Amino acid sequence: MFSFTGVINVVGTLDYETNHLYSLTVYASDTLTGAYASVTVDIEVKDINDIAPHFLRNIFQVELSEAVPVGSTVAHISAIDLDSPINAKVKYHIVPEGNETSFFHIDSNSGIIFTSQVLDYERFPQHNFIVVAVDSGMPQLTSEVRVSVTVTDMNDNSPEFSSDVYQCTISELAERGSFVMAVSATDKDVSDIDKLSYSIVSGNEDMTFHIDSKTGEC
Ligand SMILES: [Ca+2]
Ligand SMILES: [Ca+2]
Ligand SMILES: [Ca+2]
Ligand SMILES: [Ca+2]
Question: What pTM did the predictor assign?
């Protein structure tokens, strides 16, 4: 009885992501009669972690009102990883930088970003931070994406007069239409610029004075 070994070698490039299962049929035949036997050889390619998570875009841009309550959803960040499941489970975190992680947090499994405190257009009209996706392979592979949050204004500030009390004197001989004084107020809300209007609410029952609603001049 003779026996030879039929060794199977790899001569091409294997790639789990392209083909991870090969089924070979191998013949053993004798040269004399041509009689043969066949056997099936199944080869499973083992995955290695050779693909990093991939974001479909370079930047997530979001617009959010400063009125949204704490815990509001900002964005749903998602990266794909083409490795086998054991090397493709992606977790997310925000790179700590400046004060951004005090305003936002991310669910590491779902990639959903939430606000963690009230936004304030007047103080921080823009937030920029980086989210990192880390896969579950060994060693772990990562990729980054930039998140840009533009905060939009709402009317959350009252107008403020430049002074608590205005005082002036005027001659009793002043004629109708004479200038008395001008009051002025400011408002931190951008949406209120040029929209302030002035009116006298009391003390003027006999209509002695008139105020210009736009300029605050009496
Ligand atoms: Ca991977
Ligand atoms: Ca792989
Ligand atoms: Ca206002
Ligand atoms: Ca505002």
Answer: 0.76
